[in-house]
């Protein structure tokens, strides 16, 4: 795909990248890291997954998307290694996903923002669904407070 000096942004090669991707989930203490085999299945079944890697092959960023490849795409699990944040890597990875599902074809690009990440998505040109008179609904194992 594209490169900046010393950092490459490319599609995931699961056998090569999985342990580095797992380290990213661990670094953020995300629950997926407790089930590595399920995580591997999830990434393999994703429609499109992207990593950012340094020159020595270290995975420092990851994101994936699920799509019907016609109308709808759901973006998930955007992760940048803590020591690499705020250097434009999250933007590059996310843009790679969004560009893969362009809005002249796809009706919308959706995701659920973690607390604290809203500002990042606004910087990427995304908006809360409420701005369009829509309401997002969810069923989840977590109970609201
Ligand atoms: C959210 C995350 C992916 C952002 O990655 P990043 O590489 O630090 O982001 P970038 O450096 O590409 O930032 C792009 C822009 O968003 C802004 N931004 C980044 N994180 C932000 C945040 N948490 N809140 C507000 N703005 C943010 C940057 O300042 C930059 O603004 P600019 O357009 O003025 O330059 C990263 O902080 C992360 O991995 N967080 C933990 C996991 C997480 O919460 N992921 C999101 C799941 S919904």
Describe this structure in words.
- With 145 residues, this protein is α+β, with helices and mostly antiparallel strands.
- The chain has one domain: Aminopeptidase.
- The protein has 4 helices and 6 strands; from the N terminus they run E-E-H-H-E-E-E-H-E-H.
- Strands 1-2-3-4-5-6 form a 6-stranded mixed beta sheet.
- Helix 3 (89-100) links the parallel strand 5 (72-80) and strand 6 (108-110).
- The longest helix is centred in the N-terminal third of the chain and has 14 residues, at 14-27.
- The mean pLDDT is 95.
- The protein binds coenzyme A.
- Coenzyme A (COA) is lined by residues 28, 78-80, 85-91, 113-114, 116-117, 119-120, 123.
- Residues 28, 78-80, 85-91, 113-114, 116-117, 119-120, 123 line the site of coenzyme A (COA).
Q: Could you outline the blueprint of secondary structure elements for this entry?
A:
Layout: E1 2-4, E2 7-11, H1 14-27, H2 36-45, E3 48-54, E4 59-67, E5 72-80, H3 89-100, E6 108-110, H4 118-123
Parallel strand pairs: 5-6
Antiparallel strand pairs: 1-2, 2-3, 3-4, 4-5
Coenzyme A binds next to β5, α3 and α4.
List keywords for this structure.
six-stranded mixed β-sheet; 145 residues; alpha+beta; binds coenzyme A
Short account of what is shown:
By secondary structure, the chain is of the alpha+beta class. It has four helices and six strands, in the order ββααβββαβα.
* Total domains: 1
CATH architecture: 3-Layer(aba) Sandwich
Radius of gyration: 15 Å
Largest sheet: 6 strands, mixed
Q: Total number of β-strand segments?
A: 6
Distance between the termini: 43 Å
Number of helices: 4
């Amino acid at each position: 795909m594209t490169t900046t000096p010393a950092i490459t942004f490319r599609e995931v090669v699961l056998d090569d990248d999985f342990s580095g991707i797992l380290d990213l989930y661990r670094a953020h203490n995300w629950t997926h890291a407790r089930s590595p085999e399920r995580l591997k299945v999830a990434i393999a079944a994703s429609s499109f997954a992207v990593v950012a890697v340094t020159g020595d092959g270290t995975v420092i960023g990851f994101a994936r998307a699920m799509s019907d490849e016609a109308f709808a795409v759901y973006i998930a699990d955007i992760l940048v290694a803590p020591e690499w944040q705020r250097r434009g890597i999250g933007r590059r990875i996310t843009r790679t996903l969004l560009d893969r599902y362009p809005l002249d074809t796809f009706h919308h690009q959706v995701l659920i923002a973690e607390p604290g990440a809203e500002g990042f998505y606004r910087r990427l040109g995304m908006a809360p669904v409420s701005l369009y008179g829509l309401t997002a609904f969810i069923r989840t194992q977590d109970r609201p407070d």
